[in-house]
Design brief:
- GO terms for molecular function: aspartic-type endopeptidase activity.
- It comes from Gillisia hiemivivida.
- There is one protein chain.
- By secondary structure, the protein is mostly beta strands.
- It has helices at about 130, 140-145, 290, 385, 410-415; strands spanning about 15, 25, 30-35, 40, 45-50, 55-60, 70, 85-90, 95-110, 110-120, 140, 150-155, 160-165, 175-180, 180-185, 185-195, 200-205, 215, 230-240, 240-255, 260-270, 285, 295-300, 305-310, 325-345, 355-380, 395-400, 400, 420-430, 430-440.
- Strands 1, 2, 4, 5, 6, 7, 8, 9, 10 and 11 form a ten-stranded mixed sheet that branches. A six-stranded antiparallel sheet has the order 3-13-12-23-24-14, with no helix packed on it. Strands 16-17-22-18-21-20 form a six-stranded mixed barrel.
- β20 and β21 (about 260-270) form a beta hairpin.
- The longest helix has 8 residues, at about 410-415.
């Protein structure tokens, strides 16, 4: 089951970037640490501290040795040694201005780094928080992975980071080990992909945990890599340069060593979104979270090694969103909440009633802020589009339940499973409430 919010953090080409100095070190006397993470819309979200400030970051194998984040106030982190640079990524937008800051202190779990380079973006248009429904302050990639052997358990939402020199590989019959190739500090894996049953094609794929998709594949007819006849146009994701569009389809099979996955969802981005962006010349696409979550994975960047072990998600079918809409967080609404209370009171008046327990009932009105959700994307000819939903519609209720009672990830799962299930929405458009009803439909 895949979610309909495909946040693709493909920061492929940084201008004027130099390598960060120093390394992460686990606190003295320890050789590993455990860290719980959240899986939010098929992305890994971890707590992280910079210069004493607690933040929330995406942990993404697909980014270089840098951190990029958006903040409200420039002075909130007390950044050091700041210089202006340009950053460029996939999407419709142009290169943007960012600030490079060195000498920062970063802490993850029980490990710390005392000379960390930070790239700060003060452009609210590229904020990811509204697409994920929780504050996302940045992204960390190679700078974390290079200093540890990292074991991911996606089913338990936990990772264990080991000192590289103390890690020992255990015998594992169900596992398979892969050699990794690195280009600009990003890991690539070799895979075999069968498209429309025309035989297996060898592909070099970027391992990109920051992609909510299963596969991204770059069309290359001269290599036999063509978009399947059964496909549909769609919004693919939101990169640093803006929205990315292309076609979605399925490939028959994906082989990773001794493992084979069938009926895998695959996105084929339009070439205009990565024109002029430097990348690995042999790259044929990306392998994303929808594949990775089917394994317990061990990343060993120093030894250029990846170990995969199937987990309980391995046989789970690959599915696209069945509604045709992408929701985004859009500010807050004030909600009136009534708190009822029956309090026991001992009577102190009149002899006949002294010592008798009576109950005093009262209602207390509270006001609180709850998230609002807006429709950010509508897929043409989808159930939602045919029912009349439009970009900008404010979602008030989902199946007669206030929308703010759901997290975005819960809504995504609801819209990605149960073909034929009826979805009832109450939306507000130009101040007018409308009732919309449609049925989920499997798109491919």
């Amino acid at each position: 089951m895949s979610c309909p919010i495909y946040i693709l953090l493909v920061f492929l080409c940084f201008f004027n970037i130099s390598k960060a100095q120093g390394v992460f070190k686990i606190d003295e006397g320890k050789y590993k640490f455990d860290l719980s993470f959240q899986s939010v819309n098929d992305l890994v979200v971890i707590p992280l501290e910079i210069n004493g400030v607690e933040l929330t970051f995406l942990l993404d194998t697909g980014v270089e040795s840098s951190i990029i984040f958006s903040l409200e106030e420039k002075d909130s982190l007390n950044v050091k040694n700041a210089t202006d640079i340009l950053l460029r990524g996939w999407g419709e937008g142009k290169a943007i201005t960012a600030i490079k800051s060195t000498g920062n202190t970063v802490r993850v779990g029980t490990a710390s780094h005392s000379d960390f380079t930070v790239y700060i973006v003060y452009d609210h248009d590229i904020s990811l928080s509204n697409r994920l429904g929780l504050p996302i302050h940045g992204i960390i990639g190679y700078d974390f992975f290079k200093d540890f052997v990292v074991e991911f358990s996606y089913t338990k939402e936990r990772l264990i980071a080991y000192n590289i020199d103390s890690y020992v590989y255990k015998k594992c019959r169900r596992c398979d080990d892969f050699d990794l190739v690195f280009h600009k500090n990003k890991p690539y894996i070799k895979a075999l992909v069968s498209i429309e049953n025309k035989g297996f094609l060898p592909m070099d794929l970027l391992i990109d945990s920051g992609s909510g998709d299963a596969l991204w594949i770059f069309e290359a007819p001269d290599l036999g890599i063509e978009i399947p006849d059964e496909n549909f146009e769609d919004f693919l994701g939101f990169g640093m340069g803006g929205s990315v569009y292309g076609k979605r389809a399925r490939v028959n099979n994906l082989k990773l060593g001794k493992f084979q996955l069938d009926g895998v969802t695959a996105s084929f981005p339009d070439t205009l979104y990565f024109a002029g962006v430097s990348t690995y010349k042999s790259r044929n696409g990306s392998l994303g979270f929808q594949v990775l979550k089917r394994f317990t994975s061990t990343f060993d960047y120093k030894n250029k090694r990846l170990r995969l072990k199937p987990n309980k998600n391995f046989r789970e079918p690959f599915e696209y969103d069945m509604s045709g809409i992408v929701l985004a967080h859009e500010g807050y609404t004030i909600v009136k909440d009534f708190e009822n209370n029956n309090s026991p009171v001992f009577s102190e008046s009149e002899d006949a009633f002294k010592g008798v327990v009576v109950y005093k009932s009262y209602s207390k009105v509270k006001f609180k802020l709850e998230p609002q959700y807006i429709i950010a994307e509508v897929r043409p000819n989808s159930p939602a589009a045919l029912a009349g939903l439009k970009v900008g519609d404010l979602v008030e209720t989902i199946n007669k339940k206030a929308a703010y009672n759901y997290e975005l990830s819960q809504i995504s799962k609801m819209f990605s499973s149960g073909e034929g299930k009826t979805i009832k929405l109450k939306i507000k458009r130009n101040g007018v409430l409308l009732d919309i009803r449609f049925e989920l439909k499997r798109v491919l």
